[in-house]
Design goal:
- The longest helix is centred in the N-terminal third of the chain and has 20 residues.
- The strands form six sheets. The chain has a seven-stranded antiparallel β-sheet, with helices on both faces. A four-stranded antiparallel β-sheet has the order 1-2-4-3, with helices on one face.
- The chain is an alpha+beta fold.
- Helix 9 packs across helix 11.
């Protein structure tokens, strides 16, 4: 649309950037008028946003009948240039650097959306990487502001094809989620070196964006979950901007579970069709004298909660298990869930447990059953937990108290309770595919990570026997409110679909051990991820 010049503001004695509209002799008057109007609107849209991550607009002046935008000058290169340089060296940006850049981008988009402005052309070439480390979103040339009419003709697509969201490719109305999809495509290219759906032609690329499944990023590290969530086909399945920002901050600093705040990776907080999974610790193996948690896990089915009981390998404590019948992402994060999912890219699947699946769901996932009996050593004195100041119950949730277990925690409205005495309880979402499981054992494992590894070995063996895949996303030691803990996130295939789960196990040896577990279809994990965070952050025990 124009050429950007570095210039000097003689009145104020400062360097500025001046964007002057291009004019081609072939342009008719209508097209010329449209470009003129777009240039003016670019300045107006950017001027509505006052934020350090958005290029500042000083003025719009007329030069020989053509508009020129006078902007702040940012000594920089673009993210597009950085990606090309890395590619020439057969490298890509590190997940941490991509997260840092993404954090500046999402801050800019949040500011723009709050001001009623959709960017509509988010891509690496429009991201300035300042010499001082500043990240700046620029080029609002095709942005649209609330209260203004569109300049797009019927059937016309404006923007760069590689970064157009599916709903835009299909002719739908763009919204803030469309900018977030473009952010996801940009982050994908930053860590993989190529756009996620690029094909040989623009038409093939557009078709791939609208119809083809995403090839999971291989070099994204802790960013993988977020990128996949942002590139969900349906706008409502993508995380909210707030959740994205929290997740990027967690990924950049590689914060552990204990340090994550409340957040939701996806818009809303907790919605989606997730898998029913459970966590319940219990059995001790005589083989090595080490207690192996036999978490009771209900496996998600396509349309219902599994019924019956089938012996299934234990899942790690406090883990979220994904049943084979889950879509790739579920938005189960609360305001802090998003952070948790990003920081913990690993899930947990507990083998024992039963949930009664509906007729339709029964065909999709197996229902785990209790395995073995708990062998409990002589109890030791239990230290009194330090008082914890809990965050407010998130909107759309209500707090439940399980007196028999001595715990309370927030649960999404509309989820039904399934009790499996004596040491655990489940809450299932209306679809029967997503599950929150809380389990309490009398004695905590001396090594939470080792316990999860043992459970993982059993579960992996079962998956292999059934011809189903399993992928560890994250399994690591952490702390939770000062107590030893481990977090495990995993992705696994069910009979009908893929599931994902997260399990947090914590407790001091000699005291109670607690497990917070959430599972849901993998395709909707970003939607359900916030649930895990909300339950975790609002969890209380006596």
């Amino acid at each position: 649309m124009g050429t950007v010049w570095r210039a000097r503001d003689e009145l104020l004695g400062r360097q500025v950037a001046v964007k002057r509209l291009h004019v081609s002799p072939q342009l008719d008057q209508d097209e010329l008028a449209t470009r003129y109007e777009r240039t003016t609107r670019e300045a107006q849209a950017a001027a509505r946003i006052n934020h350090p991550n958005v290029v500042g607009v000083h003025d719009v002046v007329d030069d020989a009948g053509l508009p020129c935008i006078v902007m702040e000058y940012v000594p920089s290169s673009t993210l597009g240039d950085a990606i090309k340089e890395e590619a020439q060296a057969s490298r890509s940006l590190s997940p941490r650097e991509a997260a840092r850049i993404g954090r500046g981008m999402i801050a800019a988009l949040r500011a723009a959306h709050s001001a009623g402005v959709l960017h509509r052309d988010v891509k690496p070439g429009n991201v300035l990487l300042g010499e001082d480390g500043r990240v700046v979103l620029t080029d609002f040339g095709i942005a649209v502001a609330s209260g203004t009419s569109t300049l797009t003709k019927t059937g016309e697509l404006v923007g760069s094809i590689d970064y157009l969201a599916p709903e835009r490719v299909k002719g739908g109305t763009p919204g803030p989620a469309s900018d977030l999809w473009a952010l996801g495509a940009t982050l994908y290219q930053a860590v993989e070196g190529r756009p996620p759906f690029r094909k040989n032609t623009a038409v093939e690329t557009a078709y791939s964006i609208a119809m083809d499944p995403l090839e999971p990023p291989r070099n994204a590290g802790a960013l993988a979950s977020l990128i996949e969530a942002l590139l969900a086909k349906e706008p409502e399945d993508r995380p909210s901007a707030e959740v994205v920002e929290q997740a990027l901050r967690a990924a950049e600093s590689e914060v552990e579970t204990a340090l994550l705040g409340r957040g939701a990776l996806y818009p809303g907080a907790v919605a989606g069709d997730g898998a029913v999974g459970g966590s319940g610790r219990g059995a001790v193996t005589a083989a090595d004298g080490m207690r192996v948690s036999t978490r009771q896990a209900s496996w998600p089915r396509e349309d219902a909660v599994p019924t019956g009981s089938t012996a299934v390998p234990d899942a790690p404590t406090g883990a979220v298990v994904r049943s084979p019948t889950g879509r790739r992402r579920a938005v189960v994060w609360g305001v802090a869930s998003a952070l948790a999912v990003m920081a913990l890219a690993g899930g947990v699947l507990y083998a024992t447990g039963q949930l009664g699946p509906s007729k339709d769901q029964a065909a999709d996932t197996p229902a785990p059953a209790h395995q073995g009996a708990s062998v409990k050593p002589k109890p030791k004195p239990k230290p009194s937990p330090a008082p914890v100041k809990l965050p407010p119950t998130p909107a759309g949730y209500h707090r439940v108290t399980e007196k028999a277990l001595g715990v309370s925690f927030p649960v999404p409205d509309g989820w039904r309770r399934l009790s499996k005495p004596p040491n655990e309880v489940d809450y299932i979402d209306p679809s029967g595919l997503a599950n929150v499981k809380i389990s309490v054992l009398d004695f905590a494992s001396p090594d939470q990570v080792r316990h999860f590894e043992q459970v993982e070995q059993q579960f992996q063996a079962k998956q292999a026997k059934d011809g189903h895949s399993y992928e560890r996303m994250r399994l690591q030691e952490t702390t939770f409110r000062g107590e030893p803990a481990a977090i495990w996130e995993l992705r696994f295939q069910g009979s009908v679909r893929e599931f994902r789960a997260a399990d947090l196990g914590f407790g001091r040896e000699g005291s109670n051990e607690y497990a917070i577990y959430v599972s849901a279809p993998d395709a909707r994990w970003p939607q359900y991820q916030p649930v895990f965070t909300a339950v975790r952050d609002g969890f209380s025990h006596t």
